[in-house]
Amino acid sequence: MSISRAKFLLKTLNNLKPNSFHSISSRRYSSESHIPSHLEKVGFIGVGNMGFHMANNLIKAGYQLTIHDKDLNAMKHFSDNGIPTKETPFEVAETSDVIVTMLPTSSNVLEVYTGQYGLLHGGNPLRPWLLIDASTIDPQTSRRVSATISECILKEKRGHRDRPVMLDAPVSGGVLGAEAGNLTFMVGGLEEAYMAAESLFLSMGKHTIYCGRSGNGSAAKICNNLAMAVSMLGVSEAFSLGQSLGITASTLTKIFNSSSARCWSSYNPVPGVMEGVPSSRNYEGGFSSKLMAKDLKLAAESGEEVGLECPLTSQALKIYMDLCDKGCDLKDFSCVFRHYYSGRDEL
């Protein structure tokens, strides 16, 4: 665990009100709220910058969580506050009705689900009836893991169901959205399972969108991030050209945000124009260039699989990989503005 991540988690925990791990969130639940028994015991695997806040919001909403992370220090923050932790994903599965995973890569997902002492270790039967993967990975891996899970048998039949089910449910909203509980979940898999788990999603987020069959949630997420990456490149290039032609960034911002160029990326990649955005804090926080490059690579590979030519994807991937090579991998992806414009900021 990096020092910066440790400080981030410690600071977040220190800022929590006393007993906040055990209180019911007034944002969505009253003291009379009832969590369905089939959702009550949740195993959460992967408590990094995103997963930490998602898990904490479930705890505040009244769910009984069990935590696992490869990083022992990350787990210690929970165990010190009375939340059970386990050394392996398999041990988490033994005590959980529902599993939520929030992991960095497809290989991490495969390791947690099908690796040694993974969730499916030892084969049948399984206790969790529902396994939710909130990671951003390729649709093919999501579908492959889902198919493997569907071949397992449940220890105890749940209603008419005797086999577990998986939902792929990547999120949009970033660390700030995870902390505030404002995430959007894009969910693929069995619609019946999606409906049964909707209250759990809404304890971590504000919106849920059902995307269809298994893998479609993952597909939706990489398409969303592809569009976001390309729009950020367009906005950054436009600011660069505008300033080079003598128009200040603040004037362009007013124009963009009151006309047809308005979009999420026009929140502003130019330092000093707007407060509270990564560009005004040296591109710290937000969604890293490294993660954007990873997601663009997933989009490019998915395009190749279906035989679709994606020239903007290829160019965006090249630019973001170049940014990472130049040491900007942990900077917010809006730092791509600097790829085009390295001179004085004309506000």
Automatic annotation (TrEMBL):
Q: Superkingdom of the source?
A: Eukaryota
Pinpoint the 6-phosphogluconate dehydrogenase NADP-binding domain residues: 41-212
Keywords linked to the UniProt accession: Branched-chain amino acid catabolism, Mitochondrion, NAD, Oxidoreductase, Transit peptide
Q: Does the keyword Transit peptide apply?
A: yes
Query: InterPro entries in the record, alphabetically?
Result: 6-PGluconate_DH-like_C_sf, 6PGD_dom2, 6PGDH_NADP-bd, HIBADH, HIBADH-like_NADP-bd, HIBADH-related, NAD(P)-bd_dom_sf
Family note:
Belongs to the HIBADH-related family. 3-hydroxyisobutyrate dehydrogenase subfamily.
What this protein is called in its record is 3-hydroxyisobutyrate dehydrogenase
Query: Whose protein is this, by species?
Result: Aquilegia coerulea
Its lineage opens with: Eukaryota, Viridiplantae, Streptophyta, Embryophyta, Tracheophyta
